[in-house]
Specification:
Helices cover 52% and strands 6% of the residues. By secondary structure, it is mostly helical. The chain folds into two domains: 94 residues, no CATH class; 78 residues, no CATH class. It has a three-stranded antiparallel β-sheet with strand order 1-3-2. A hairpin with a 2-residue loop joins strand 2 and strand 3.
Length: 203
């Protein structure tokens, strides 16, 4: 498995490191890699360079690298990268997104989550992690529904509360770096999920 940090691809040393770790994959996008490397080196040496051209080279390599790996390597993304080709279909797959060239339904394989909620913890990082796990499951449930698999969608939605850190809104006070906003949004997200599930069960 190869993990790529798209942000670090704006540095020449990381592009070279990627080439050392996955030379066969980088070779598939050799022209785009060479173009990006030349611009990055010029920038790092303090020489003038064209900003829009640099951004185009960055996007060009990132997309070429992913596209040419897809035929025989599954390509996943974490987050919603605006730099990636919008024509690729985004398939929620556990806690990541599987980038696909077509609209065919993709079944989700079994996976034992190592995550355990830190119940009641007023911490921005704990809240964000819980929220991301829960939201990834909601996105998968929506995907299942769109493909007419309502039973699968219900099973996925039923798993969402297992990631709830059970934060009580009335106890959220000022936190470092203003992270209380994240904690509050996390608590409201799971409260909404609980209401939805209770409503569905009462029908």
């Amino acid at each position: 498995m190869l993990i790529v940090n798209p942000d670090l691809l704006r540095l020449s040393w990381y592009l070279d490191e990627l080439d050392r770790r996955a030379p066969e994959l980088v070779a598939r996008a050799a022209p785009e890699a060479a173009r990006l490397r030349a611009i990055l080196v010029r920038s790092e040496r303090g020489l003038p360079f064209d900003g829009p051209q640099a951004e185009a080279a960055y996007r060009g390599f990132l997309n070429a690298f992913a596209a040419r790996a897809m035929p025989d390597h599954p390509v996943f993304a974490e987050g919603n990268f605006a730099q990636l080709d919008p024509a690729w279909k985004r398939v929620p797959y556990h806690v990541v997104t599987w980038l696909r060239p077509d609209t065919a339904y993709v079944p989700e394989g079994p996976w034992r989550y190592a995550y355990r909620p830190w119940s009641g913890r007023m911490d921005g990082y704990v809240a964000m992690t819980s929220w991301l796990y829960g939201e990834s499951r909601v996105n998968r449930a929506v995907y299942e529904t769109r493909h007419g698999r309502r039973d699968a969608a219900q099973r996925v939605m039923a798993s969402v509360p297992t990631f709830d850190p059970h934060i009580r809104l009335e106890r959220v006070g000022p936190l470092p770096l203003g992270s209380q906003a994240i904690v509050i949004r996390c608590a409201r997200f799971f409260a909404g999920i609980e209401r939805s599930i209770r409503g569905a069960m009462s029908r």
